[in-house]
Design a protein that fits this description.
The complex is a heterodimer of chains A (336) and B (258). Chain A is an alpha/beta fold and 336 residues long. The N and C termini of chain B lie far apart (43 Å). The chains are: A alpha/beta (336), B alpha/beta (258). Iron/sulfur cluster binds next to loops of chain A.
């Protein structure tokens, strides 16, 4: 992995302007993705995961606008790129897979036509070469009888196979970065696992970087190198997956990990959900967005957004929480 | 015989038969999970019991009543289904109150208002949501409404199809706790479809594993927890699930708040 990040997002701030007011979807998000790295983004519904990525890709709905920040991809700021250049970059260098393959595939065309068109559009290949490439890609994503399956329509594939088709299309142009938004939530565990292992294998073979959005912590644990935990439009904690799962240092991350049922959860036990509900991004809390639900909130939390503190156990492990301030009351959680 | 009893159930869509000789028994008070491959027919089995899939052969008996092919009001009062998608399963133009009153109207039951309030309390949904529309509620709140609706007629059996897989982890935990509590308080019997084995272990006593329209194994949850499933496919499922939650299970700090 080179030291130069492939993608460098800084202070990204995105809002939607609606009749009810400004929805502050993303509030100062910063992170890097190195070449060949898999970065997982978790966080509850509405925390800004998809909008972070849509902002970078410049695919926001017309009422949405990036109001501040930068997103440098190989040195150039995507947010300043001309629309024409951006369109070329999307698909060429950055590819994406969305949650529901049924809505992203055209039901009236065979998958072969769709993938061949994409290859021709981006690579200017001949139809024959594009077809050959399509077959190779189907083989890469392990669709059996690749050549003949090109003639099938989307509905003729099972959920797992359709997701493979989407991955094949995304890989058409050897992207350097693949953004996968909830690629497996609709699939059963064995198929989920196959798809994730496949993504990981392809990532290792082609050396691309992946941003993987999911609300499934298990998925992140299994495939990602690094994790971003989002809440209320901000990154609450980040670090290597092993470190964050072993030593979560933000009350929200801790709450998430505790609420997951385990195979060994005793029958009599109750699960421990995080009390309360996520903030309304039309009127987000003034201070720490998690404060209204945080059992350890202090006075300062309500009034001021916490800065990011380095955890010290590992270079990249950081948490945005006042508990890590040197003057914070000490606690039993091993805070800095 | 009380409970749910299914014998040699073959359900078809058009000319395609998708379940093959499925037999299942769920005793009163029990909670049975139906797990397995995507497309293996799990939802189909639930739909047949609920009367939503009508093209089948075999026997379905609910609380001593043999199910016919048509809507059976007597079975409907005893046995209700809850779906995965709390967005799609509620009527977007009906208030929560209208949604919850509807089954009472259909069955000609009086004091609707009192019953609606009682059920909202039961699923811990504040009364101020009563006259709102589904889009004004969060996913977890909608799933509470869906559960309340299923409980309106005082059923003894709930058929739950992936009741929490569309929800965030923390919200999922709330709904799972709710389902566990009402089962105990109201002595309900559950048949739960899920792809999450941790959910099985939390909410169920036994599980049946389906593949390609057939039940390949039934086992106790204790066998699941101790890694003692017998069929090769069940093992594969368990393996995938363990790897998935692997990192969560080994983290000491998971239980920090205890
Ligand atoms: N077109 C829009 N108009 C107004 N608000 C929007 C729009 N799209 C998204 N939002 C809001 O932006 C916030 C962030 O949404 P986002 O889709 O990024 O969440 P997410 O973390 O991806 O959640 P999920 O897990 O549900 O996909 C939410 O509060 C959402 O309601
Ligand atoms: N309305 C329908 N018309 C035709 N075929 C259907 C219909 N509903 C389901 N099927 C087919 O029947 C089979 C069983 O589907 P079912 O929905 O019961 O599977 P499942 O086990 O619930 O899967 P999943 O885990 O993906 O929800 C599948 O092959 C499916 O494609
Ligand atoms: S900053 Fe305060 S409210 Fe926010 S997570 Fe930390 S302790 Fe809790
Ligand atoms: Mg999203
Ligand atoms: Mg199903």
């Amino acid at each position: 992995m080179s030291n130069h990040p492939l993608l460098e997002v800084k202070d990204l701030t995105t809002s939607f302007f609606t009749s009810r007011g400004e929805v502050q979807a993303v509030r100062g998000v910063s992170f890097d993705v190195s070449p060949g790295e898999i970065v997982g983004i978790v966080g509850e519904s509405g925390s800004g995961k998809s909008i972070t990525c849509m902002s970078i890709l410049r695919l926001l709905k017309s009422n949405g606008r990036v109001v501040a920040g930068q997103a440098h991809f190989e040195g150039q700021d995507l947010l300043k790129l001309a629309e024409h250049d951006m369109r070329k970059l999307r698909g060429d260098d950055i590819a994406m897979i969305f949650q529901d393959p049924m809505t992203s595939l055209n039901p009236t065309l065979t998958v072969g036509e769709q993938i061949i068109e994409t290859i021709i559009a981006h690579r200017g290949s001949s139809r024959k070469a594009a077809r050959q490439r399509a077959i190779e890609l189907f083989e890469l994503v392990k669709i059996p009888e690749a050549a003949s399956r090109l003639n099938s329509y989307p509905h003729e594939f099972s959920g797992g196979m359709r997701q493979r088709v989407m991955i094949a299309i995304a890989l058409c142009c050897d992207p350097k970065l693949l953004i996968a938004d909830e690629p497996t939530t609709a699939l059963d565990v064995t198929i989920q696992r196959q798809i994730l292992l496949l993504l990981k294998e392809i990532q290792a073979r082609l050396g691309m970087a992946i941003i993987l959005i999911t609300h499934d912590l298990g998925v992140i644990a299994e495939v990602a190198d690094r994790i971003l935990v989002m809440y209320g439009g901000m990154v609450m904690e980040t670090g290597s997956v092993d470190t964050v799962f072993a030593r979560p240092n933000h009350p929200y991350t801790q709450g998430l990990l505790t609420s997951v049922p385990k195979l060994r959860t005793a029958h009599k036990e109750r699960l421990r959900p995080i009390p309360g509900s996520p903030p309304d991004m039309l009127r987000p809390p003034v201070g720490c967005p998690f404060a209204p639900r945080c059992l350890r909130a202090m006075q300062i939390c309500v009034g001021e957004v916490p800065p990011i503190f380095e955890m010290g156990d590992q270079q990249t492990h950081k948490a945005k929480c006042w508990l890590h301030h040197p003057d914070a009351p000490t606690n039993d959680e091993g805070a800095a | 015989m009380s409970g749910i009893h299914i014998k040699n159930l073959n359900v078809s869509y058009g000319n395609t038969t998708v379940t093959h000789d499925v037999s299942l028994d769920v005793s009163v008070g029990e909670s049975l999970a139906l797990v397995g491959e995507s497309g293996s027919g799990k939802s189909t089995v639930l739909k047949a019991i609920a009367g939503l899939a009508t093209n089948w052969t075999g026997d379905i008996e609910v609380d001593g009543i043999a199910r016919g092919r048509s809507i059976d009001p007597e079975i409907a009062t005893k046995c209700q289904m809850v779906f995965q998608d709390p967005y799609g399963s509620l009527h977007p133009r009906k208030t929560i109150d209208a949604t919850l009153s509807e089954p009472l109207q259909i069955h000609g039951i009086k004091d609707q208002s009192a019953r609606v309030i009682e059920q909202l309390e039961n699923v811990q949904l504040d009364e101020r949501y009563r006259f709102r529309f589904p889009h004004q509620l969060s996913g977890g709140q909608r799933q509470r409404v869906a559960i309340a609706r299923a409980l309106m007629l005082g059923p003894r059996f709930l058929l739950l199809d992936e009741p929490t897989s569309a929800l965030d982890v923390s919200v999922q935990a709330e709904i799972l706790n709710l389902l566990k509590r009402i089962r105990k308080e109201q002595n309900l019997t559950y048949l739960v479809v899920t792809h999450n084995l941790a959910v099985v272990s939390f909410l169920c006593d036994r599980l049946a594993v389906m593949r390609s329209g057939k039940i390949v194994e039934t086992a106790d949850v204790s066998q699941l927890k101790s890694n003692q499933l017998a069929h090769a496919y069940s093992k594969e499922l368990l393996q995938a699930s363990r790897l998935h939650s692997g990192s969560n299970e080994k983290t000491p700090h998971n239980d920090h708040a205890q």
